[in-house]
Amino acid sequence: MEYRVPRGPLLAATFALLATTVLAQDKPALPPGSPLIGRPDNNPAAEKLAPVPAPPLAAAADKIPLDKFKAPKGFNLELYASGMPNARSMTIDEKGTVFVGSRLQDKVYAITNKNGKRQVHVLVSGLYRPNGVAYKDGTLYIAELSQISKIEHVEDQIDKSPKPVVIYSDLPKDEAHGWKYLAIGPDNKLYFEVGQPGNNVLHDDAHGQLRRLNLDGSGAEKIAFGIRNTVGFDWSPKTHELYFTDNGRDWLSEDLPNDKLNRITKLGLDFGEPYCHQGNIPDVEFGWGHDCKDYVPPVALMGPHAAALGMKFYTGTMFPAEYRGQIFVARHGSWNRTKKFGGDIALVKLNSDGSVKSVEPFVTGFLQPDNNYIGRPVDVMNMPDGSLLISDDWNGAVYRLSYGPNAKLAGR
Amino acid sequence: MRKLVAVALAFASFAVLPATAQTVKERLPTCLACHGENGQSQTPNVPSLGAQQAFYVTVQLLMFRENMRVATPMNDMTRSLTDDDLKSFAAIISTLPAPQPATGPVDEARMQRARALVEQNRCNFCHKQDFAGQDNVPHIADQREDYLVKALRGYKDNSRHGYDASMADVIAPITDPQILDLAYYIARVK
After folding, report:
1. Smallest CA–CA separation between A53 and chain B, in Å?
2. Do A47 and B125 touch (CB under 8 A)?
3. Which of A20, A113, A394, B21 could in theory staple to B14 by disulfide, Cβ–Cβ 3.0 to 4.6 A?
4. What is the pLDDT of residue A408?
5. pLDDT value at position A251?
6. Which band of pLDDT confidence, cut at 50, 70 and 90, is reported for residue A47?
7. Domain ranges of chain B
8. Total of domains in chain A
9. Mean pLDDT of B27-45
10. CA-to-CA distance for B83 and A127, rounded, in angstroms?
11. Burial, A174: exposed, middle or buried (Cβ in 10 Å; 0-12, 13-18, 19+)?
12. Phi and psi based region of residue B109 (left: phi greater than 0; alpha: psi -120 to 50; beta: remaining)
């Protein structure tokens, strides 16, 4: 749209602006906190970029393009369960029931597994962005946009529409980065993030952080800061240190900043957002007066706009020995980039000191060569048999990655 | 033989599910009784559906069916719809003619204020230059003014949840008088 000179009281101000700068084609400044800050105006390439909307309905099992997803030689990828619109984070109980949260739907699903027969149930409806799920000792914990709740004895209530009991709600209600990942640490505490309330914003001390709670909702602590939006974390089985993914800001450039993999070596660390991105890029707006050296740099860069989300250390023994203790990361894939990036499960190999040796694509094909998604991985989870589950919010499905010729479920 | 089976099946499904035995096209007049013929609603606070994005309609019908968006009588109307019904309704609704701009004398000062707001908030970035929308972003050009006010206020006070957070993000800095101007303008874009 061409620029229209406002009339009336704005006229004088506009003329002053025109007199000093060549801004005839520029648009008025965006409101503070706008998700579009940084996006160049009048740039046809940038104008084409917007978040990619996921199909609102789950794909039918026979319509899921499993044959296009590629795992390395020796690995098998098969459909574990389907029909769960917007399937996101996962957790599992002792009976092998897998609980799956959703972000854009209002449901938590349960995939029961009785004698090899898997069945999808809607466990709870009417929740608000219930992205996070975690399980411990009979109780399922659910993180919605602005509250954490629990369902005790969940296994006895799979088809009884149990009502979650809220245990913690001292949380902001912002939509932007308000959905949560939830996990229980080796210290038996619930961990979740409060993301920054916008693409690139200054905020109060209730945002941009990781918190933890006792399982009864008491004892809330803020344990890490300068976090834009983590949607995945896990603890090293060796050192018990927490590693977490964090998504970089939009609209800085096509190739920068990278998403990050961070490591918490002690409580209270600041990882730099929104002042410093990926450990070495001062923000063009908020970086003034700040030094990247004052913040904890990432242990790995996960790719530009890659949307590195759920991650797990591989703790099973089914995969070859070289994979044990390494990290699998679900990269949901970019939108803020002309040539999309990610849309895979990445393998992060670690050195013995816990630093990162390499990051490489591992299960691919969710992003096709024609630059379109046919699936988008969200979370990964270790199964008791050593296989790895992968959730996909594009198809509303969960896949199972196994290793070896006899490891497929169908082959049993 | 095949024909006989098909006939038998048709009768069987009619007997079990009389409501869904009708095609979506046959059921559409029920929708248009409130939403208006030719894509243009004549009912206060009820949106025009003409030229609406099929993706957006699918999402909204789904949200009504699942009570994620609460609006009488839409939750009841959609309760028994299958996923395929949602897609069929969306497809047919998207082919209805686009609504026409509100008529009558135009307050140019309001139009001008709203244009500046549209520019500043980059409404056209998602809704496109002609406000026709794309995918999950609705066609809003020449939507009913009262409905636009209601929708924007709903996003603003969070009584209406978007399928995603986009509108909640961008509506935050917009004031109620600005919402009135925006609705006035968008109901009249040519």
Report:
1. 7
2. yes
3. B21
4. 87
5. 94
6. confident
7. 24-31+47-97, 108-186
8. 1
9. 95
10. 20
11. buried
12. alpha
Examine the pLDDT at B108 and tell me if it is beyond 70.
yes
Nearest CB to A27: which of B62, B119, B164? Answer: B119
Strand order in the sheet with A300-304: A233-235, A242-246, A258-264, A300-304
Closest residue to A4, CB basis, from B115, B166, B170 = B115
Q: Is residue A6 part of a domain?
A: no
For chain A, helix (H) and strand (E) counts, in that order, are 2, 27
Residue A410: per-residue pLDDT: 62
CATH 2.60.120.10 fits B108-186, yes or no: no
Select the residue of B59, B121, B122 nearest A56 (Cβ to Cβ).
Answer: B59
Instruction: Determine contact, residues A231/A302, Cβ cutoff 8 Å.
Output: no
Q: Considering just the CA atoms, what is the radius of gyration of chain A in Å?
A: 22
- Asked whether this chain's domains B24-31+47-97 and B108-186 adopt the same fold, the reply is yes
Burial class of residue B6, CB neighbours in 10 A (0-12, 13-18, 19+):
exposed
Q: Which CATH architecture has domain B24-31+47-97?
A: Orthogonal Bundle (1.10)
CATH number (domain holding residue A113) = 2.120.10.30
Mean pLDDT of chain A: 92
Q: What percent of chain A has pLDDT over 70?
A: 93
Domain range for residue A320? 44-411
Above 50 in pLDDT, residue B110? yes
Is the interface score ipTM higher than 0.90?
A: no
The reported pTM is 0.90
Inter-chain residue contact A30 with B83, CB threshold 8 Å? no
A405 Cα to chain B: minimum distance (Å)? 37
Flag whether A324 is in a domain: yes
Residue A141 pLDDT grade (very low, low, confident, very high; cuts 50, 70, 90): very high
